[in-house]
Amino acid sequence: KGVAFKKTFSYAGFEQMTKKFANPKILLLNVELELKNEKENAEVRIEDPEQYQSIVDAEWQVIYDKLDACVNCGANIVLSKLPIGDLATQYFADRGLFCAGRVEDGDLKRVAKATGATVQTSTNGIYEGVLGTCKDFEEKRVGDERFNIFTGCPNSLTSTMILRGGSEQFIAESERSIHDALMVVKRSLKSGAVVAGGGAVELEVAKHLREHALSIEGKGQLIVNAYAKALEIVPRQLCDNAGFDSNDILSALRRKHTQDDDGKWYGVDIENGDILDTFNAGIWEPSDNKSNSLASATEAAGVILSIDETVINPRSQDPGAATGMMPGAGMGGQKPLSNMMGSAMDAVNAQKGGSRSGNIGNGVSYLRGRGGG
To answer: I want to staple 32 with a disulfide (CB 3.0 to 4.6 A). Which of 82, 136, 231, 279 is the partner?
Structure first.
């Protein structure tokens, strides 16, 4: 329980630093602790060569004043979003402090939230109230990488998960799975209502739809039954992904949901290849997510069914087909291709019971949808 981030780039003298602290004081900065050349073209005129040394001494004094301010505030750990150079690294190492520069903005904010520290944009006026703390700090190796780990933070709501794996693909897949799980929990807390997972809701809704279809006359009954059958794809896919026979498990689930009064929360048990009460097992899904999924799938199916005609223009080697010109014909007197297609489609549609597909011209074919007249 705590915060961790990967070790940042370090300068000479880093090996001499103390790598472990108990109850440390943590200072977070957005200040560059490094000697750098002037960013702008600067010109200094002097009358005495000895004055040049005073200018150099002033530049050094500026950086030393910053370092002294960090040490005098009582901090044991100094983290900065900007670089901490070799001079500052050696300076802190000689005085028993730990420092790390070029810390990513997200890592710095997480440390600030966990330890209670406040990021400072200047080294002037630093006092103990802006420092954070934790129970233990240690830089240690985890696998092939070194991490700075803060444990026992006062704000225990923050935590860091370190994933290890044999390949980048495995780690990336693990990260996506953990992210999805965390977002489901977050969504559940926001919605305030959950339903059983494992395909239990889909099968229960499919059962009610089949019962409702018996009261419908005409083709609408087929539509409702088709919708119910489509819902069973979810538990079937869960069985296939787990390597079990989906037919046996779905048959058991249909019997459980139909005959037993307490079977509405029964879903797929991917661990034992059987069925179980997923609600009591803690396999939950946010009710808002399930409602949105059903609404989105229904809307997508409606959009697809609303397509009445589909015109296909395959790629052709004939240069005239790409420009809408008949082979060997010039621009003069040639009708636009769109008019040709419109006339041909009108003629076909006028023929009741005519063919649903055919050729309009060279390189152009048409396909009539089942919703057409």
So the answer is: 82
